[in-house]
Automatic annotation (TrEMBL), chains A, B, C, D:
<dbReference type="InterPro" id="IPR023210">
    <property type="entry name" value="NADP_OxRdtase_dom"/>
</dbReference>
<protein>
    <submittedName>
        <fullName>NADP-dependent oxidoreductase domain-containing protein</fullName>
    </submittedName>
</protein>
<dbReference type="InterPro" id="IPR036812">
    <property type="entry name" value="NAD(P)_OxRdtase_dom_sf"/>
</dbReference>
<keyword id="KW-0560">Oxidoreductase</keyword>
<keyword id="KW-0521">NADP</keyword>
<dbReference type="InterPro" id="IPR005399">
    <property type="entry name" value="K_chnl_volt-dep_bsu_KCNAB-rel"/>
</dbReference>
<dbReference type="Pfam" id="PF00248">
    <property type="entry name" value="Aldo_ket_red"/>
</dbReference>
<dbReference type="GO" id="GO:0016491">
    <property type="term" value="F:oxidoreductase activity"/>
</dbReference>
<comment type="similarity">
    <text>Belongs to the shaker potassium channel beta subunit family.</text>
</comment>
<feature type="domain" description="NADP-dependent oxidoreductase">
    <location>
        <begin position="28"/>
        <end position="326"/>
    </location>
</feature>
Length: 354, 354, 354, 354
């Protein structure tokens, strides 16, 4: 069943931000799936298929299904007997797996204890990248940067990165690392999709140009909205149906005027995808994020092998995103972030006009 | 018997100084008790009760009962099977456990050897915070800061701190850490109570504002004086009675004119506590220290479980310490430290008057 | 059979660049031989003979015969029971031993994973020097210098070095190491022979004078061309014959006008060697590189014990290379690199003339 | 037999240079004795007696009897079951224990390999202080300081020190350590006695005042000359008799006019010791070095237990060295080094006179 349908040698690899680590344009994430709906043999099947199709990066977090995502991923990797240097493993710390005042956040205590517990669940000596799953305003940045540098010096990770930090927070981490000769983060795991653009496209602009930070994108399909499957309501068995409680806010928002306006746009994108690119709206949405020069990898979720193969078709769509097509997409979306200059005002064109 | 009488979720947690470590407002210390009058099952009972009531921080020292306090605490924690990240363990080095020229102080030799011996007694791989139990004028500050940074880099502690250091010594530690990119201390374990205020309230003022150092307070009840139990002389079985030799100076001082004046004040405080706050003088005294914004935690001692529960009532007194009540307390005490400005002269008010 | 013919005490030792490590003027390399044509007992015989003749430095690389060179060398050293401090082992990272995006280059991931795999193949806890087998323009220099410093701090190597880096890249490594207080490289493993002089003699001039970098020279015999064995065509069984595919370009180049011109020069050098120095063209060519003050060691290859002994005769030729002889060699070669000053123009003599 | 004759509590302890390590004024060294003339039970007996008399510091070196001194010392300490923190162990690297180009000196290779071999012979995890037994002009100071800092960071030693380095070399080590935030040496093991004063009293003057370096003195008795035992020629069984070859130069020098002049002075010192201080010339000579404020410890050698006890009598002589007595000694010696000011000229007194 798991015969690859895509030549793994065609998987494009990119550097993860400024680092020397190469990551595939599409990687596999274990959020909401591994250790929950996807366990045992099906989990193994999906990871095996991913690897056979060129996806050698697997992303998880201590908090994904309360540690079970890491356990499941670790077990599968061990059973498949992959050579450690052939794969890239990333995990994240912040939300913890236990209650209690020190079982989360970015204190030195949780960064060290949390890393050791993640590695135990993964049955590994190290991960490739460890992410701060959120910023922690209750810990001085010096303590955070020192602790992640410590994790790297101990050999428990090769790099560290951030997730959903503000540009100002990333800037401060660089400032501290530079001052103390410590190690700065290399990537930011952020939400980025056609309906969520301000932070990744505008707020981070200075961070990209100053530090060459790369993004590891989550929610590129806007929780499935951009697949077009909600074009005619919430189908039975879809994520919004199965995970009703988790996504209740999102579902409600979808039924608001703004939500209905989004669905209208998805329908137009679906038409564009099918008629002009001979592809699906999913593949278009994924390719659209992947084509961004600051995107290092787009993290895919998958509950079934077919879904993964389906999404990998986006690789062939990337070169089809010509300036003309991109402009048509902007017209449909109507939400292109306005660039700002360093004085915080909109950039003027060469004639001194906005 | 050990049914909690206090909802552990009501225990307030604070950051330990500038760090990301969270500590409970009241913690449990092993000075003079663990490994001495409190051993075996009673020790276990008290620690279990403390934990069930939200106290997850346990403080000890190499010198407490010559290492026995650490041994007892380590044994109990192992037997209770607590998850390591759920608790905060602090110990201290300086006084040593053996005679000999290098078995104490803050030389690199004793800091490293002493830490390893403390960890062996505690049966732990690391403590959360390691304190320099006193300053050591015979060791250059660079050697001290380097050695504690080494202990942290080895993974034997997450943070280091000081105990009964002068503001000038703490300042020097920050200076050295800053210059050499080493790790500065985060807390100061000092005596602080209604009768001992100059150092914690005045001498450290600049240290609090410059470095956000937090205090872990010992002797908040002034060796029991503030419980009111010496209001009518030294009762049989009280600490001053049982530990006659250790406290002989204190007892003598109590019978001096200054001592009698203190007892007079305690009687007034007792009246205030009972009549205006419907609480005990102990709870008032503990809450008074705990309410100080620079206090990270107040360390409680306990020889019996009841005593611990009794003292935890102070948590409910903290919000009752209104400005009016605090002013009444100042009137009774009459010992408020005079703030000084940076030129060493008393601060002037906005009209240029003292 | 392996009776030494050369007194090992006559082997000259030099410091490897600016470091305190002493290396023999001639060392033994495992490129193209160990783990390929030279395995098992013959490999052991050659290494034993080398050691008995004063050669205590052995050079290999992860990529030499895809890891087999390291395995063979490690096995032999273990079997011979040499005392670790008596020998100098060097290996190199960059080309990797497996396919895949992260199994090569100078990312932190490959430097750390690759070092551990090399040490496993060598059955050693550390090597003396680890080389970056090429520069990697896809990895920031800070990541490279940090990762090699990490390898040294972990105790996996005493020093690190470069191979076939440009002077500008070496300069950048020094800049980063100096800025961040990290460890700079000590040597450059470069090609240097009578027909390949621009880089080692001209490009590196500033690097030698600024940092005292030493070279560990490979291809001192220009793939055998300078032995004179191709003076009358490619003999059966020679490297160019046996390794036809690997050297196809070189062989073709040899038959071009430039190649024939080189052979003409080798014939003249052969005459000079035999008539004026009573030695072979090989010994002359080796001595000529070894006499360069920036050469720390010349790496010899050997497929047979006799070959090694033959080449060691070069040691006796070094002192015979008088200024007059060196000038005759320059006349034959006609390719002396023109020195440049810091403005990139030819240096003027003291009369202001070129 | 080994009943202590001296109350160990009377042993004065001093800080070793600027460090927090306390060393006894008299310590025991293993040069020329341990592992050679003193082995097995006699060695144990001497070390046990030393310890019972307050001497808790034992000094050895990799080169002392080619490693045997370390082996003997390590064996005895293990057999006596001393608590590690009760003793101070020092060893030295430079001369090596094996032939070969990298088995000595101060390269990173020898410092790391040598330390590990010393620790193996001593059967210890660490020594208290590791000395560079000589300076090595063939290794850049940065490599030396980095390597000793590495040894300390690894936990193999608490401090490092120098032996017979010039003031300029020590100054350079401080310069490098300061620039790179590495660890500087704390002591200098130098020859210092009534006939060898220029270096310890004059050359190091600036080093003492700048860095508070302490000395660990060897040869305080000038190879026995100051004991008075050569006052009437070389007696049978004395060190100069037994170790004829090792000391041949010294013995010859003793019979020269300068040597005879020295013996004349020793006779005068003997008279002074006996008549004015009721002690032996040995005790006087030892006390004279020990009383120097820059001396941290004077290392004693001993081949017999009695000899050690005899020498410890010097402790009681120290307070008897009044200014008047010291002046009489200067008159006898006539070799007081002339102090120099920073311009290299003799210091003027307050009236502008020499």
């Amino acid at each position: 069943m798991s015969t690859p349908t895509f030549d793994p040698k065609n998987m494009p690899f990119r550097r993860l931000g400024p680092s020397g680590l190469r990551v595939p344009v599409f990687s596999l994430g274990g959020w909401l799936t591994f250790g929950k709906s996807v366990v045992g043999d099906p989990c193994k099947e999906i990871m095996k298929l991913a690897f056979e199709n060129g996806i050698n990066m697997f992303d998880t977090a201590e908090a994904y299904n309360n540690g079970k995502s890491e356990e499941e991923m670790g077990r599968v990797i061990k059973e498949l007997g992959w050579h450690r240097s052939d794969i890239v493993i990333t995990t994240k710390l912040y939300w913890g797996t236990r209650p209690g005042p020190n079982n989360g956040g970015l204190s030195r205590k949780h960064i060290i204890e949390g890393t050791q517990e993640s590695l135990a669940r993964l049955q590994m000596d190290y991960v490739d990248v460890i992410f701060a799953h959120r910023a922690d305003p209750n810990v001085p940045m010096e303590e955070v940067v020192r602790a992640f540098s410590y994790v790297i010096e101990k050999g428990w990770a090769f790099y560290w990165a951030t997730s959903e930090w503000s540009a100002e927070q990333i800037e401060e981490a660089y400032h501290i690392a530079d001052k103390l000769h410590l190690i700065p983060p290399i990537a930011e795991q952020c939400q980025h999709n056609m309906f969520h653009r301000e932070r990744p496209e505008k707020e981070y602009a200075k961070i990209y140009s100053s530090y060459n930070i790369g993004t590891t994108v989550w929610s590129a399909l806007a929780s499935g909205l951009l697949t077009g499957k909600y074009n005619n309501g919430i189908p039975e068995g879809s994520r919004f149906d199965v995970e009703k409680n988790f996504f209740s806010g999102t579902v409600k928002q979808l039924q608001s005027p703004e939500g209905l306006e989004k669905i209208r746009k998805v329908k137009e994108l679906t038409k564009l995808a099918e008629e002009e690119l001979q592809t699906t709206p999913s593949a278009l949405a994924l390719a659209w994020v992947a084509r961004n020069p600051n995107t290092s990898t787009v993290i895919l979720g998958a509950t079934k092998p077919e879904q993964l193969l389906e999404n990998l078709k986006a690789i062939e769509v990337i070169p089809k995103l010509t300036p003309a097509i991109l402009e048509k997409i902007e017209v449909i979306l109507g939400n292109k972030p306005e660039p700002v200059n360093q004085y915080g005002r909109p950039l003027l064109d060469k004639f001194g006009k906005l």
